Amino acid sequence: MPLLPGQSFAGYRIVRQLGAGGMGEVYLADHPRLPRQDALKILPPGLSGDPMFRKRFTREADVAATLDHPNIVSVFDRGEADGQLWITMKYVDGTDASYLLNSHPRGLPAGDVVAVISAVADALDYAHGQGLLHRDVKPANILIAGAADKPSVKRRILLADFGIARPIFDDTHITSTNLTVGSVAYTSPEQLSGTTLDGRADQYSLACTAYQLLCGATPFANSNAAMLIHQHLSVSPPPVSEKRPDLSGQVDRVLSRALDKEPARRYSSCEHFANDLASALRSGAAGATLLSKPTPAQPASRPPQPRVETSQPQRSAPHAPGPRSTPTPASRPAYTPPSYTPSPYQGPTMPRSDGKATASLVLGIVSLTIGWCGFALLTGPAAIILGLVALRSSDRASVPITNRGAATAGVITGILGTVAMIAFFILAIVFGDSSSTT
């Protein structure tokens, strides 16, 4: 049940609720000692009670608190109260990118997309250099500080929700929390399949965000989370120019590379992706911006001028766009996905999911379902052994959350299958002796 204004939590006095989602509720709250207001995020009890999640939350919140970047929302404190984990961040008075999309459902001006993606790319590359992945980049987590009706006030772009240790290997969170379609729509294939993660997973999510900011729709739109997962894993997204014809084919090629199913075929950094996207957009769509007054086009030999006042250093595009004409929709050549040379990546990675827990669960189910035919004599003990081996490693913070659950289920089903087999043979012997006696 949401907290009401005036209530206290962990010493903070609740002012009002700012939002709610699968990862918890966010409140504007008065600091217990300092004369300021913070954004207080309270995580759900189900996650707070998970020992593995708690370890990862503590580790990542501590790392996030050390991040010092103009485009990252600062983390102030963390703790636990009433059995629930909480974290406080700087309160940003403004809006978010998803709100801008609500008022511009067909996409934002190209200049605004460049400003947002460039700022977030800077933030992500900085965090990756500090060994931290975000894993939930989406418009709702991109905050825009400052009032839209006050053009004289600088509008900063900030990425929020660093330090929240999301259960990245836990498939159950797709249905057991409010994350469902909301976050899956931006999630990389490797994150959905539980394989090794690095900064290019965040790049994929950033590309999904850029796609939506440009045309108002995510690369894959489906109300069914399972279908979304299938599309991220196996289906190529439609070119964004099909939904927004004023964009050039170069924009399609840039997004196609950043959205490649294979991480090695994406850009080596988020900055590289943002620079190429900025160059492609400058060669195509134009128009007034929402975040600031538009600036005149600059010669190709000069660095691009920012279209919005932000606090990050000015970015220089590696490829100066030359003169070109944008084809009209009727004359646009057919789009074909390009091929790329894999980009070397040096950055933080997340561990690969262990297969022993899954094997234990499968063998346990087999022993339980067909134990009557004697297979449980082999599959039952094997499930128990594999499950125990997986459980022995589950105290490491780097071990996926689902390993522990799958291993425990494997041990239990293995025991039940073995017991069922023994009971079956005992009954067979008893009834066999009875029939022979009669």
TrEMBL record:
Regions crossing the membrane: 361-391, 411-432
Class of the enzyme per the UniProt entry, highest EC level: transferase
EC number: 2.7.11.1
Gene Ontology molecular function: any one: protein serine/threonine kinase activity
Limits of the Protein kinase domain: 12-278
Alphabetical keyword list: ATP-binding, Kinase, Membrane, Nucleotide-binding, Serine/threonine-protein kinase, Transferase, Transmembrane, Transmembrane helix
CDD domains for the chain: STKc_PknB_like
PROSITE patterns hit by this protein: PROTEIN_KINASE_DOM (PS50011), PROTEIN_KINASE_ST (PS00108)
Ranges for region Disordered: 290-353
Superkingdom assignment: Bacteria
Residue spans of biased composition, Low complexity class: 290-300
Reactions that this protein is recorded to catalyse: L-threonyl-[protein] + ATP = O-phospho-L-threonyl-[protein] + ADP + H(+); L-seryl-[protein] + ATP = O-phospho-L-seryl-[protein] + ADP + H(+)
Pfam families: DUF4190 (PF13828), Pkinase (PF00069)
Keyword Kinase in annotation: yes
Name of the protein this chain belongs to: non-specific serine/threonine protein kinase
Species for this entry: Gordonia bronchialis (strain ATCC 25592 / DSM 43247 / BCRC 13721 / JCM 3198 / KCTC 3076 / NBRC 16047 / NCTC 10667)
